[in-house]
Amino acid sequence: MKARPTGAADQGARPRSTVGRGRPDSPAGSIRRVAAALLVPLILAWIASGHAALAQSVAQPRLQTVELRAGIHRIQAEVAASERTRAAGLMFRQRLGPNEGMLFVFPSQDRQCFWMRNTVLALSIAFIDADGTVINIEDMQPQTDDGHCSARPVSFALEMEQGWFRSRGIGPGARIAGPPGMFAPR
């Protein structure tokens, strides 16, 4: 706002109304300040608690891939190794190639659970121990909040098109192999 020189005449200028515009000293301005002071920390806490993936509406860009093997079968797996890429996973992805999937790499061995919110593909997930041994496999239906968990602590999870493991005879106890050093020796 430009200051008016002292002693300047109004010459017919009308004062502008500030009713309802939220001037800092008005009731509307006070309400906005209080609302912002309450909502901003709540929204930031919600995002920080791992719900950032819920706010996305498009698939994350393709991630770096690694070649894995399950017996004679080769898999091209995108690697989700950060909290952000693991949270987004395959949400909003429209298709996977015949031997494509996503490998989730966890910072420590722990019991892991997945859901299918905002995921339009039917998937199967193999929970994998640190040495590459498949612990359990779960089929997951699209667009559901059902929990699918590892039977015990794991270091990896591999999502593939639903039925991929079953159609290749891969089940609990099978070994997944990767580049040297990826999986701990048995």
Notable features of this structure?
globular, six-stranded mixed β-sheet, alpha+beta, 186 residues, 2 domains, 27% strand, Jelly Rolls, two-stranded antiparallel sheet
Secondary structure layout plus pairing:
Layout: H1 27-55, E1 65-70, E2 73-80, H2 83-88, E3 100-110, E4 113-114, E5 123-128, E6 134-140, E7 148-149, E8 154-161, H3 164-167
Parallel strand pairs: 2-3
Antiparallel strand pairs: 1-2, 3-8, 4-7, 5-6, 5-8
Q: Tell me about the largest β-sheet.
A: 6 strands, mixed
Q: Supply the CATH superfamily name of the largest domain.
A: Protein of unknown function DUF192
Predict the CATH topology of the largest domain. Jelly Rolls
Low-pLDDT residue intervals, each spanning 5 or more residues: 1-22, 46-55
Short description:
This protein has 186 residues and is an alpha+beta fold. The chain has three helices and eight strands. The protein has a six-stranded mixed sheet. A two-stranded antiparallel sheet has the order 4-7.
What does this structure look like?
The chain has 186 residues and is α+β, with helices and mostly antiparallel strands. The protein folds into two domains: 20-55, no CATH class; 65-167, Jelly Rolls, CATH 2.60.120.1140. It has three helices and eight strands. The strands form two sheets. Strands 1-2-3-8-5-6 form a six-stranded mixed sheet. α2 links the parallel β2 (73-80) and β3. The longest helix has 29 residues, at 27-55. The chain is globular. The model is unreliable at 1-22 and 46-55 (pLDDT under 50).
